[in-house]
Amino acid sequence: MSFHHLTQAHVPVSQLLLSKYNVPGPRYTSYPTALLFGDVDDPKRFFKDSKKSKAPLSLYFHIPFCASRCWFCGCHKLITTDSKMADVYLDYLEKEIALTLKSIDIDREVVQIHLGGGTPNFLNEDQTERLGKIIRSSFKIAADAEIGVEFDPRTLTHEKVLNYRDWGVNRASIGIQDCNPEVQQAVHRIQTTEQNLNAVSWLRSAGIQSLNLDLIYGLPYQTVESYADTLKEAISYDPDRFAVFSYAHVPWKQPAQKILEKHSLPSADLKLELLQLILETMQEHDYDYIGMDHFAKKEDPLVVAQNRKSLQRNFQGYSTHANVEICSFGISAIGQSQNVYRQNTKDLNEYYAMLDAGQLPIKKGYMLNEDDQIRRDTIMRIMCDMGLDYDKISNRWNIQFKDYFAKSLKALESFQQDGLVEIGNKAIQVTEAGRYFIRNIAMQFDAYLSQGPKGYSKTV
Ligand SMILES: C[S@@+](CC[C@H](N)C(=O)[O-])C[C@H]1O[C@@H](n2cnc3c(N)ncnc32)[C@H](O)[C@@H]1O
Ligand code: SF4
After folding, report:
1. 1 falls in which pLDDT band (50, 70, 90)?
2. Residue 120 and residue 60: Cα distance in Å, rounded?
3. Which residues make Cβ contacts (< 8 Å) with residue 270, sequence separation at least 6?
4. Across 271-344, where does the E strand assignment appear?
5. Which residue is closest in CA terms to ligand 1's atom 6?
6. CB-based burial of residue 268 (10 Å sphere; 0-12 exposed, 13-18 middle, 19+ buried)?
7. 3-state DSSP call for residue 421?
8. Distance in Å, CA 344 to ligand 2 centroid
9. Beta bridge partners of 140
């Protein structure tokens, strides 16, 4: 079945399946997941291969500041209105870059840069310009590099957009979340249509080629009717891509989310209705479903890559860049190379102290063994291709797929009985109904869930 078939029909998923499969599970932006990363004593060990690697670079910069707290937020952020905090932070980003440059082969091109947060446009115009200069002067950036930034329309200005454009930013992601005033009030994120329209028109008129909008479903007071209006408004902004996230409720990690429990959160039933509405509305407006919350226009590079089965998944979501080394900077940022994950400390004071001591601020990490790498490849192909070709995995890793994953294939039989996958002799294909449960399907290939998936949000 081709990917396009997957977007053609909308299969009503029974209540029974929903309650059976709606369990906590990873989002697989990495495998093993960040919960398995261990403490790091010697950060340099986690750059062991980076000195000789020739893989192109993908850079991530985490700008953690936000001027106000959205109560649903699951990101690593610091709430402040003090712009001087960002000056100090930029000083330390500079230190971190200088230290990192000593640990990696820098004679490689940077093919992708992403600024995330928090809110990168918390930086004022001077700080935006300074960050651009720091990055440009430290790395060899490919002429056609994808350079993307996450923007909050509430604090964006036309000048900031022009500054970002001037140092090469060519992609933007805008946080919309929900357009309904009652929902906005309940989640403490008041954002007007005018702010959204301004952001879109500034970015488009500055020549930003690719625009993504973020929405969330599963927030208090959302109904099918209210969410249809939110989708209508968001689609009228004509973005190239949508990320429509299922609200991840993890109050043990994000205590402010408890505030949302005062209002009732949508039931799993309503969330499924919302998901079906989203899939239908996106299809009506010619956005293809990439998988795991992401949609894009047919001509978008993500859709092209998915059709070629070359799509990738990493900490920033889906990407077209394979075989890159991800170097990440700033608190909580996660880097990735062929067999290593490394994560910076999430604590701002510790980040500063480690850098003051001349130390890379890496706090957690993971070294993948061969089994991890085989399973990562398998899980990422499922998440990106909505299926698996046994021979491809067997050839890449010199294994017999069916033997290696005999236990996983056995476990998938009940998914087949439920109509979620088709298990063939040479391939597995996720069915239309199976798309809803893609995380559950991927979980069957995860070696670390036997103790029970702890600490994850629910899969639907
Ligand atoms: C760093 S923010 C984007 C930039 C900016 N801070 C903003 O909010 O506009 C990343 C995105 O993560 C999503 N997000 C945050 N918390 C979430 C949660 N608990 N569940 C699902 N999505 C969430 C939101 O859609 C948000 O736009
Ligand atoms: S959703 Fe964005 S603006 Fe809101 S608190 Fe989270 S990172 Fe900050």
Report:
1. very low
2. 12
3. 222, 223, 224
4. 287-291, 294-297, 312-314, 317-319, 325-329, 334-337, 340-344
5. 119
6. middle
7. strand
8. 20
9. 109
Ligand 1 mutation pick, 152, 160, 174, 216, max ligand atoms within 8 A of CB = 216
Tokens coding 87? 């000056």
Q: How far apart are CA 275 and CA 265, in angstroms?
A: 15
Q: Find out whether the beta carbon of 153 lies less than 6 Å from any atom of ligand 1.
A: no
Angle value at C-alpha 365, between 361 and 370, nearest 5 degrees: 150
The C-alpha atoms of residue 35 and residue 364 are separated, in whole angstroms, by 10
Sign of CA dihedral 224, 230, 235, 241: negative
**Token code pair at residue 327:** 């170097």
Protein residue whose Cα sits closest to atom 1 of ligand 2: 73
Which residue's C-alpha comes closest to atom 27 of ligand 1? 175
How far are the Cα atoms of 65, 84, 104, 139 from residue 91, in angstroms, in the given order?
A: 15, 11, 21, 17
Asked if 390 contacts 427 with a C-beta cutoff of 8 angstroms, the reply is yes
Pocket of ligand 2, candidates 71, 73, 191: which has the most ligand atoms within 8 Å of its Cβ, to mutate? 73
CA of 357 to the centre of ligand 1 (A): 33
Q: Where are the alpha helices (DSSP H) in 341-405?
A: 348-356, 370-385, 390-397, 401-404
- 192 vs 177: CA distance, rounded Å: 12
* CATH numbers and ranges of domains, the chain: 1-32+369-450 (1.10.10.920), 34-326 (3.80.30.20)
Instruction: Determine the angle formed by the axes of helices 390-397 and 370-385, rounding to 10 degrees.
Output: 150
Q: How far apart are CA 232 and CA 178, in angstroms?
A: 11
Model pLDDT, residue 458: 66
8-22 tens-digit pLDDT: 345 566 767 777 887
Of ligand 1's atoms, which has the minimum distance to the CA of residue 257? 19
* One-letter identity of residue 253: K
- Name residue 368's amino acid: L
Beta carbons within 10 angstroms of residue 103's beta carbon: 16
Cα–Cα distance, 36 to 239 (Å, whole number): 36
**What ligand has the least distance to the C-alpha of 78?**
2
The Cα 312–Cα 323 span in angstroms is 9
In the structure, what pLDDT confidence band is assigned to residue 5 with cuts at 50, 70 and 90?
very low
Work out the end-to-end distance of the chain between its first and last CA atoms, rounded to an integer number of angstroms: 23
Q: How far is CA 310 from the centre of its chain?
A: 17
Q: Is 120 close to ligand 2, i.e. is its CB under 6 Å away?
A: no
Residue 152 Cβ inside 6 Å of ligand 1? The answer reads yes
Q: What is the pLDDT of residues 328-379, one digit of tens each?
A: 999 999 999 989 999 999 999 999 999 999 999 999 999 999 999 999 999 9
